[in-house]
């Protein structure tokens, strides 16, 4: 199953963006999906995740601002980002964890989010 992320762009601080991650097959084949991000000069970090039963988790830095959700009919996972800050600037990646595996082994290409001050 391939993942394709899109929806990034340039936005002013305080603005909003919605990222989408479309899977080429059923997302029920995954035990979890997630959004990661990597800012220049920094390590990739987990932003938000959603399990196959809909349980979500978030990095402390994005709690109450970002929302991860999914549309199983469209095999798509979303990341709604509100109250964006310049420090949210990064390349955002969607990832999926295959059932029976502990790691996120399927990755989409990144989509760049730039937040201007």
List the helices and strands and how they pair.
Blueprint: E1 3-6, E2 9-12, E3 17-23, E4 30-38, E5 45-51, E6 56-58, E7 66-71, E8 76-81, E9 90-98, E10 106-107, E11 111-116
Parallel strand pairs: 2-11
Antiparallel strand pairs: 1-3, 3-8, 4-5, 4-9, 5-6, 7-8, 9-10, 9-11
Distance between the termini: 37 Å
The proportion of strand residues reads over 45%
Number of strands: 11
Summed up, the helix count is: 0
Unreliable stretches: none
Task: Give an overview in words.
It contains no helices and eleven strands. The chain has strands at residues 3-6, 9-12, 17-23, 30-38, 45-51, 56-58, 66-71, 76-81, 90-98, 106-107, 111-116. The protein starts with a strand and ends with a strand. The model has no long low-confidence stretch (mean pLDDT 95). Strands 2, 4, 5, 6, 9, 10 and 11 form a seven-stranded mixed β-sheet that branches. Strands 1-3-8-7 form a four-stranded antiparallel β-sheet, with no helix packed on it.
Summary tags:
7-stranded mixed sheet; 117 residues; 4-stranded antiparallel sheet; mainly beta
Nutshell version of this structure?
The chain is mainly β.
């Amino acid at each position: 199953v391939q993942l394709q992320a899109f929806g990034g762009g340039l936005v002013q601080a305080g603005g909003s963006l919605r990222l989408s991650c479309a899977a080429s097959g059923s997302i029920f084949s995954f035990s979890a999906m997630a959004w990661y991000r990597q800012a220049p000069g920094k390590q990739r970090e987990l932003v938000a995740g959603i399990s196959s039963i809909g349980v979500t988790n978030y990095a402390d830095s994005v709690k109450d601002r970002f929302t991860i959700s999914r549309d199983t009919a469209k095999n798509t996972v979303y990341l709604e980002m509100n109250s964006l800050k310049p420090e949210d600037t990064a390349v955002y990646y969607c990832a999926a964890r295959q059932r029976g595996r502990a790691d996120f082994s399927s990755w989409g290409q990144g989509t760049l989010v730039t937040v201007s001050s």
